[in-house]
Every structure is written in C-alpha cells, then in structure tokens.
Amino acid sequence: MTLIGKELREILRDGRAMTGAAIVFLLLIVAIAAGAQRVAEEGRRRAAAARAEADVWRNQGERNPHIAAHFGKYALRPMPALALFDPGIGNHAGSAVWIEAHYQNPFSFRPADDATSLLRFGELSPAILFQWLLPLLVIGIGFSMIAGERERGTLRHLLSLGIDPRRLIFAKTGALAIVLAVLMAGAVALAILAATPSLPRLGSDEIVRAAGLAGIYLSYLAIFVAITIAVSARARTARTAITVLLAFWICSTLVIPRLAAEAATRAYPLPANADFWAAIRRDIDRGMDGHNPRDARRKALETKLLAQYRVAKVEDLPINFEGLALEEGERYANQVFDRHYGRLFETFRKREALQQRFAVASPLLALRGLSMALAGTDVAHHAEFARAAELYRRELQTFLNHDMTANARNVAFLDYKRGRAFWDAAPKFAYASPRSDFAIALQHVSLLLLLAWMIAGGALLFRSAKEVSA
Amino acid sequence: MKRLLIECRLAASRPLLLIAALFLGAAAAALWNGWQWRAARSSAVEAERQRGADELATVRRELAAIEAKQLDVANASLPTRFLGRFAHRALLPPAALSTGAIGEADWQPFAAQVSLYSVKHSLLDKHQIEDPLALLIGRFDLAFLLIYLLPLVILAFTYDVVSAERERGTLTLAVAQSGSLARMLRAKIAARGVLLALLIALPLLALALTTSLFGVVLWAAIIAAYAVFWMTLSVAVNLLGRSSAVNATMLAGAWIVLLLVVPAALNLYAARQHPLPSRLDALAKIRRINLSTAESGDRLLNQFLQEHPDLAAERNESGSGQYFAIRQSQERNILPLVTALERQLAQQQATIARYRVLSPAIGADELLLDVAGTGRVRSERYRDQLRAFLDRWRGHFVGRAFRGGLVTPAELDGMPRFAFAEESGTTLGRRTARGIALLLLPALLLVAFSTWRLRTFRGI
Fold it and tell me: Does A140 sit within 8 Å of B249, measured CB to CB?
C-alpha cells in the first residue's frame, strides 16, 4: 500500500503528466457538455419536424388517397440519448426517411450535408476522447515509470533493498489506474452536474447500455495501462519505451482502422447510386426474373379478377380495380425492394464484420463497434430504423389503397376524395428503439477480441513483472 | 555537399529507414486505393453518360417510327411523349488529382438529370446509398497519409535531433566540431530535410505519372510548407532542452491538438458564430409550400401564363403545363430557403478559412483537396453551373413544350449540352499561393523562437 502511495505521489509531482491530465480533464468536460447540448438540440429539431409533418398530413385537405400517398410523409428517427457519448455514424446516416407511394427511399437529411469541411477531421465527442486521447495520456504518464527509474539507476537501488519486483510493478500499475479512474470519474461527474438541464432522461435499458459502455471503456484503458507498464518494464531507456508505445498507438488508432475500412470497401463493393436505382426500376418494370413485365402482371390480375367475380368488364367488378392494381403493384415492388435493400444492408453488415476481425491488430477496433452499438448509433440500429420505417410505409400504403379498392367504385380516379377524419384514422408511425440485447447480438466477435486483448495485456504485464531487472 | 552526405548517412539509422520504408509502402497502397476509386468513379460517370445516350437514341428511334407510322404515339416512351420528361444527364467527371485525395467526392453528388420538371433547389438531392460507416472513418488515400502520418514521420526523424546527442554525452563534441550549435543544427536538419524530401517526392512522382503536372507541383509546394512547419516545431521543442522522451510526448501532444482538438473546436466555434437553420427546420416550410402549390395547380398555371403572355397563345391542354407551373412556383418559394442555408454554411466555411492559421493541418488539408478538385470549391461550382444550365435548358425547351406536339430530331440536335467548366489554373494557383503563405506563418514564428533560444541555449 505504501508503494502505491509513493507511486501516486510521484505521478502527482510530475508536472508534465499533470498538465496533460488537466487538459484531458477539461476537454472531457467540454465534450460531454457539448454532446449533451447537441443531442438535446437535434432531438428537439427532429421532434418538431415530426410534429410539423403530422400537422401537414392532417391538414392536407380533401384529396384522393393515392395523391396523398404520393405527397407522403417523413418518418423521423428519434435521437438516441447515448449519442451524446458516442455520435457514431449519426452525422453521415441521415435522420429521416420519406415515406411515399411505390418507392422505398433511402435516408435523407444527413447532418453532414450541413457541415463544414472540418467534419472529416472528426468530432470532439467523449467517445473519441476516450478512444484516442486517454490511451495517449496513459502512455504519456506511464512510459517512464520503470524505464525512467532504470535509466536514473533508482531501479537497481530499489531492487537491492529487497523489494519484490512484482510488487513494485503492480504498485505502479495500480497508481496509474487510480489516477486515470479519478480523472475519468471526476470529469464525468462534473460534466453531468454542469449539463443537467440539457441531459436526456435515461430509461432502464439506456442505463444498462451506459453501464456496458463504462465496462468496455474501462477494459480498453486497462489494456493500455497493462501494455504501457509492460513495455516500460522491458525497455532499456525511456526513449525506447515511448517510441514503441507511440508506434503501437498510431497503428491501433490511426492506421489499422482506416486500412480495415478500405479492405472492407474493396471486399464488398456497393453498386453506384444510379445503378442501384436502375436495377430497381428494371426489376419492377420487367419483373424480377426479367420475364414478367408490369403490363403482363396487370393483365393477369385483371383476368384473375374477372374470372373470380364472373364478370366480363372491369367496370362491372364489385371493387375498384385501380385500387387493387395499386395494392398489387406495391406488393410486387416490395419484393424488389426487399431484394435490393436487403443486399445493401447485407453489404454494410459484411463490411462491418470484416472490420471487426482487424481488431486482432487494434484494440480500438474491438472497442469502436461495441461502443457505437451500445450507444445506439451503429449501422445495425440505423438499419433497424430503416426496417421499421419501411414496414410503416407498407402499412400506410395498404391502408390508403385498400380504402380505394373497397370504396371508390364507379368514380373517376381523381374525383374520389377523402378528408381529415380519414387522414386521422391512418396508421401513425411510432418507433421504439431496440433493446440492449439487440445491440450486443452483432458484437460477439468484438466482445471476444476485447477480452482477448485484456488477457494478452495482463499476460504481458505478468511476464514483464517476473522478468524485470535493473 | 560532402558534409551533407555524411550527415544524411548518420541520420539514416536503421529504425528511421524502417519507418521510411513503411511510409513508402503505405503511400503505394494509398495511391493504389485512390487510383481504383478514380477508375470506379470514371466508369460510374461513363455508365450515366451511356444511359443518357441510350435514352436519346430511344427517343430518336421512336420519333422515326412515329413518322413512318410504325408506332402509335400513345405507345411511345414517356420522354418521347412529354418534352417535360425528356432529361439530359449533367455529369461531373472525376477530378484530375482525385487519385491523390478522394476528399469529399465520395459523398458529393456527381450526376444530375436536367429536365423541364427539374427545380434548382433539388437538382442534387442526395438520395444516396453510401455506407455511413465508411464515410465516418474516411479513406486511406495519399492526402490522409500526408496530413496525418507524414507529421509523425517527420517527428520521428527530428524529435531527438539535439537531445540524443546530449543523452549520449556527445553534444559538446558535436558542437565543437561544427563550430556552433546553430551550425550543427542546420547541418542535421538539412540532412533530415533531404531524406524527407526524397520520401515525399517518390509518391508525388508516381502521382504525376497519372495526372496533370500543374496540380502535382502545387501539391509539392503545399506539402513542403506543411513539412517545414512540423520540422520547425520539432526543432523549437528540442531547443527547450528537455530529454528525448519528454520531446516525444510533447510533440505527440502537439500532433493531437493540431489534428484533433483544434479542428473540432473550430468547427464548434464556426457553428456558434453562424448557426445554420437545419434542413429539418426548413422541411416543414417546404412541405407546406409543396402542399399549397399542388392544390392550386390551375391558379398557378394561370398566374404563370399571365407572367409569360407569349406562352399563353401556345398553351396546349395537357396536364404537363400545369405541372411545370407548379414546379416553377415551388422553386420560387423554396429556393430562397435553400440558398439561405447555403449562404450560412459558406459563412461558417469562411470563418474556418480565417482561423485555419491556428492549425496548419486544417490549412494543408483544405489546400490539398482544393487543388485535387475534391474539396468544396469544385462541388459548389458544379452546383452553380447546373443551376445556370437549367436556365439554358428552360430557355430552349419551354416554348416548345407549351406549343405541344412531338419534338423533331433537328430540335434534339440543337439542344444544350452540359459540360463542366473547370476553374482556371491561374485562379487556383493564386488561391493556393495565398494559402501556402498562411501555412508558413506559424513556421516563421517558430523559426524566430528557435533563433532566440539558440542564443540563450544552456543545454550543452
């Protein structure tokens, strides 16, 4: 215990370490406060846009339901509360989907569209600070803890006093961990106090997610503490220690993540935007197998209905043929969308899975996916919202077309109109974010690799402690 | 000269050669990535062009068939029947230097369809399908390597240029040999500068093989200025007289501050100075405008024809005239909202340009992308040229559309075609020169600091 106390005093006396710690501390507070404000603002903006949309929909006046379907609606993704910690892909993923007849639209309104060119340098989010800056602080404080003593000759002195080298190393590890823990807890507590008015209220599931985030980030930093002390114990000079540690940090945070992303892009290419849409149009027009064109499908429907109701002309059908044709058209197009969007999201998923595997060479990669998943800001949560919005689109189209089929008989298409009571009766979009087990389900590999890094870091530390010499 | 060679040989230690080799390997990979990206973008542009050509050919074929009474007008495709539907593909070819810097080109649109129904505010609607995770992480291109990793290589070459001699106990000897600390430092920095120049020159030469020499020369100037900044920073830190390990942590801290903290903080500051009404806020207004214009198609058509009496005489009775009038009215009401957003964003961007002297990384990055043609300037030029082209298109086709009837092949021959006009080399060159001057300002300050420290240096 006295050993830890001595090590703590030494860290606290190290002016450079304390300056670095103070800067990180301030940045953490600023980032958390700014994050809370950003999430609150964006959340309000989306809620206001959703309210305005509902209002426009309700007050669109007397119109034909299919015209209303073309006018459509925007479905807005609610802002996940923990995005204040890790914004994830939020800036690049779009916040709303236009729900309209005949088409499943991709996301629009990306915050990045309204951002300056600096966005590419990255945001100063708490997650980025924890991922990039804190490991650097660990390295900055810890690299010389043993190598420095060895250089100054004090290590020989200590060992000659009969101090167990393992106890010495663990005292140093403990001291470094304590400094870091106090720093983090202090910054988080202060920031939460300062940002209380704009903090979102967390539900029980979000508290589970937040606890998960705390767990993985502590593990991540523990890996860096273990590696830093181990390298310091093995390096002959402080200079060698810092060089090795910085090289490791550069690879882990800077080089490997980008290389992994590039490899994933190369392995699973996306179709060009125009090709994607051309393929959808072709499948709808000519049929998914290329032998079932739209006109033929319509004709087949007509023949089937005439036979079913035993009448000779479309006008004699007891239902509105246009309405049913629209319903059938939607049903067919939905299969086409399922195929193409299915492939698109499958490509995203495969790309992410490939990047996860690069975590073997970078603890950051093991952490990043987990962090975004727990914060609800990863591609999987994005895709889940897209799925829910598309289900809603289909529900709404069915509601609108079904009304035409059943009630619009013997009226010219555009003369059939509906009013506010009908718009009010239309299904409404309500989205509930998936629970935390959904977040973890796709991240087993990351979790395993993070664990593997911890074990490897611990093993390295133990071995270095055993072999330490002056 | 001989002295320089000796210093070079001394500087090129085994770890540094390893770092240099790694950097060159990474540069090769980055160039290959950029080259692949540019090839893919070229073929995407070409595919769009081909689609446009195919559509035009279909229209011509159908017109000929109608004339020969082999095809009924009702069975012709939409672009043949309604002139309003006939669209021209206005394409942005990939920039010459995008092999070196993909920049923002991976999410900025590069293709638009211009027709009579197009409106200026949504010519470039971004209904795109990119991978948001890939956009977040960014590309592994040469610009990334130069902005992020080159400084680290420079720091690895120079962080202990004085402190190592002192730690080995050879500083006094080395200074005595050279005559003075300043001369010793000059020789060492010159040698490292030569090695680094070689390191940068190789990928740039490879880049020059694939594209315009002018752009690569501008790039070389930008990178040289950026490298000079990091070298002067390293020398200044060395002259503080601390140990190599301390130098390394201080320089790594400076790297983090200049590449992560300052850009993010500046972004926050610019957003606070010129807050942007978000597109989501504008959405509600746009939706209401769309709703009210859709309801009042007849009224809008009459209003439009009152403003354009020449077209009233030619009015045909199809619904397309009405739709055109609706679109015009939407544009008149919505475009101001959109340009207000664009103006505000441009002001944020201007604020950043003013303060980019705070971090040479921001300045160098912006200059590299600007010269590469994958930054903001080129995509904004594309947007503005598209809007001007839409006016030309309307001028050419509106009268015809209102007169009704089918277009003739001769009229198709005379239709306007979009060709993106690149910025002149002089304008780009001047802007880049100003940017480089700004980039050198912090380096000059550091040189002044180092000169002062050299006079009072007591670390020997």
Answer: yes
Enter the pTM of the model.
0.90
User: How would you label A255-275 residue by residue, b for 16+ Cβ within 10 Å and e otherwise?
Assistant: bbbbbbbbbbbeebebbbbbe
Q: d(Cα B420, Cα B90) in Å, to the nearest integer?
A: 8
Cα separations in angstroms, B260 against A123, A141, A366, A375, B148: 8, 20, 21, 22, 10
Least Cα separation, residue B48 to chain A (angstroms): 7
Give the closest-approach CA distance of B273 to chain A in angstroms. 13
Are A124 and B140 inside 8 Å of each other by CB?
Answer: no
B421: left (phi over 0), alpha (psi -120 to 50) or beta: beta
Min distance A53 CA to chain B CA atoms (Å):
7
- Residue whose pair of structure tokens reads 């159908």 in the numeric block: B62
Which 8-state DSSP code applies to residue A63?
B
In this predicted model, what pLDDT tens digit does every residue of A383-442 receive, in sequence order?
999 999 999 999 999 999 888 888 877 777 778 889 899 999 999 998 988 999 999 988
- Interface ipTM: 0.90
B18-67 pLDDT, tens digit per residue, is 889 999 999 999 999 999 999 999 999 999 999 999 999 999 999 889 88
- Above 60 in pLDDT, residue A221? yes
pLDDT digits 0-9 by tens, B71-89: 888 788 878 877 777 889 9
Size of interface A-B (CB pairs under 8 A): 219
Q: What share of chain A is helix, strand, coil (3-state, %, to 5)?
A: 75, 5, 20
User: Contact, A326 vs A221, CB < 8 A?
Assistant: no
Quick: pLDDT tens for B190-243.
999 999 999 999 999 999 998 889 999 999 999 999 999 999 999 999 999 888
The helix or strand, by DSSP H or E, that contains position B96, with its residue range, turns out to be none
Scanning every residue of chain B, which has its alpha carbon at the shortest distance from the alpha carbon of A346?
B131
Nearest to B129 among A242, A266, A276 (CB): A276
Q: What are phi and psi of A361, to 5 degrees?
A: -105, 0
Give the pLDDT confidence score for residue A63 in this predicted structure. 85
- B48 reaches A (C-beta below 8 A): yes
From the list B167, B250, B278, the residue facing A114 with the nearest CB is: B278
Tell me if chain A has a CB within 8 Å of the CB of B140.
yes
Nearest to A148 by CA among A52, A235, A51: A235
Residue of B nearest to A274 (CA): B48
- The arithmetic mean of pLDDT across residues A281-304, rounded, is 85
Task: Give the distance from residue A66's alpha carbon to the nearest chain B alpha carbon, in angstroms.
Answer: 14
Contacts 24+ apart (CB under 8 A), B381-384: B381/B420, B381/B421, B381/B423, B382/B92, B382/B110, B382/B420, B383/B123, B383/B124
From chain B, pick out residues whose CB is under 8 angstroms from the CB of A261.
133-134, 137-140
What is the Cα–Cα distance from A387 to A376, expressed in whole angstroms? Answer: 15
Cα diameter, chain A: 108
Q: What letter does residue B74 receive in the DSSP assignment?
A: G
Q: Which amino acid type is present at position B349?
A: Q
